[in-house]
Design a protein that fits this description.
Elements (H helix, E strand, L loop, with lengths): L2 E2 L2 H12 L10 H12 L2 E2 L9 H9 L5 H9 L3 E5 L3 E5 L7 H8 L11 H14 L21 H11 L3 E7 L2 E6 H4 L11 H16 L1 E2 L1 H4 L7 H13 L3 E6 L2 E6 L16 E2 L10 H8 L20 E6 L2 E11 L4 E9 L6 H18 L4 E4 L2 E2 L14
Parallel strand pairs: 1-8, 13-14, 13-15
Antiparallel strand pairs: 2-4, 3-4, 5-6, 7-9, 8-9, 10-11, 11-12, 12-13
Helix pairs in contact: 1-9, 6-7, 9-11
Length: 396
């Protein structure tokens, strides 16, 4: 029999598990960054730089002391590595062995990533990196026919194929360009590199997901992972039988939860704190889940034709009072150190607009500093009647 959980309790459990809003921290800022990555299991990488890139933004929301150089140092110290989660991501090095099933499936031809492997070119690329050390795609000349803007040159395809099947790793980035090196030169000494059994892998995926997300379903745990959902479903049943998991009912929908996570329900949630989230934040990445649990229908509109956009090119969901209550389309003009809020749109369910405005005013200065901006312009609000922001916000 499933245990019932109210929608508000489920939301609270999800937010505590996601460590949102960020709580008090101890230790160094770098340690807090590593702790966030290890707890969440991955941080999605994205190329859009309208504001600070998604991986920096997501980490800043868990660690207010976050600086981009902390992530660079964690990679250099071999505490974090780059690979694929549901998308390109930074992952804890301690979880390296759980990246092996995908790598081996790609190497064996059981799965395919972006490109068909060119074995001869891959061998040539690997030989150069073995002899010369770390290289970027630009270090390989392309002498063939001219490529379109959206076509990767053959050497880049070979590098990515070697990366996806695990022979190469990313030792760092230079101006956001990947630097590729041999796996054995990137991995730290003594790391467990044994391939997990199917059962181990399934249990890892389940525990990691539920630890970071509070409640989950088989489809959510296996999100964008190929050929794993049947095993996840079977393993969930076994873990319920063993008492490691509980089945719960939230508004008529079945979820699973770690038995130990239910203790988080007795912990108060910092409802007065406001968080401006990245569209690629771990909380938000599964849109159907956000609709079911938070009644928040979100679409990132940078891929939508301009004339069809409702909220703006890069609208940022805003969390306040334990709910997703607004979205804010922003752009940081770095040359002028100017943050433009092109559109602040409130959800129709937000009633206490004055308190929300005060919470937003309190958060905006740190958000501006995070984006290296000292000036602010608010261009449009929905509804139009919105309390004016304090004059001190417009120029820090």
């Amino acid at each position: 029999m499933r245990n019932p959980l109210s929608l508000q309790e489920a939301q609270k459990l999800v937010l505590h598990s996601q460590r949102l809003p960020a709580g008090k921290q101890t230790g160094s800022a770098s340690a807090a960054t590593l702790a966030a990555i290890e707890h969440l299991g991955y941080i999605q990488i994205d190329t859009i730089s309208t504001i600070q890139r998604a991986h920096h933004h997501t980490l800043w929301n868990r660690n207010p002391r976050y600086k981009a150089e902390q992530l660079d140092q964690l990679i250099a110290d071999k505490r974090v590595f780059e690979y694929w989660s549901h998308a390109a991501a930074y992952l804890p090095m301690r979880d390296y062995r759980y990246s092996l099933p995908r790598k081996q499936a790609i190497a064996n031809g059981e799965q395919r990533h972006w490109y068909a492997p060119d074995k001869a070119l891959m061998k040539s690329v690997l030989k150069r990196i073995t002899a010369e050390g770390p290289l970027m795609a630009k270090d390989f000349e392309h002498t063939g026919k001219k490529l379109s803007d959206w076509t990767a040159k053959p050497a880049k395809r070979a590098l990515e194929s070697l990366f996806m099947q695990g022979e190469l790793m990313i030792s760092g980035r230079v101006n956001f360009h990947k630097v590729y090196d041999l796996r054995e030169r990137v991995l730290p000494a003594g790391l467990d590199t044994t391939t997990p059994s199917s059962e181990e892998y399934a249990r890892f995926l389940i525990c990691r997901y539920l630890q970071a997300n509070g409640v989950g379903q088989a489809a959510e745990i296996s999100y964008l992972l190929k050929n794993i959902k049947p095993l996840i479903t079977t393993t969930l049943g076994a873990m319920v039988a063993d008492g490691e998991l509980q089945e719960i009912d939230v508004a008529g929908i079945q979820y699973y939860v770690l038995a130990s996570s239910l203790d988080l329900l007795s912990k108060p949630l910092a409802r007065n704190k406001l968080a401006i989230l990245s569209p690629f934040d771990n909380l938000l990445i599964q849109r159907k889940r956000m609709q079911a649990l938070f009644n928040f229908d979100y679409l990132i509109e940078c891929y939508v034709p301009e004339e069809k956009r409702q909220y703006g090119y890069f609208s940022l969901p805003i969390l306040w009072d334990g709910k997703l209550v607004a979205r804010m389309d922003c752009k940081a003009d770095r040359r002028e150190s100017h943050l433009h809020i092109h559109h602040l749109a409130l959800e129709s369910t937000l009633n206490n607009i004055d308190d929300f405005s005060q919470a937003l005013s309190k958060t905006l200065p740190t958000f501006m500093q995070f984006n290296n901006c000292t000036q602010l312009t608010l261009h449009k609000t929905t509804p139009k009647k919105f309390p004016p922001l304090p004059p001190s916000l417009y120029r820090l």
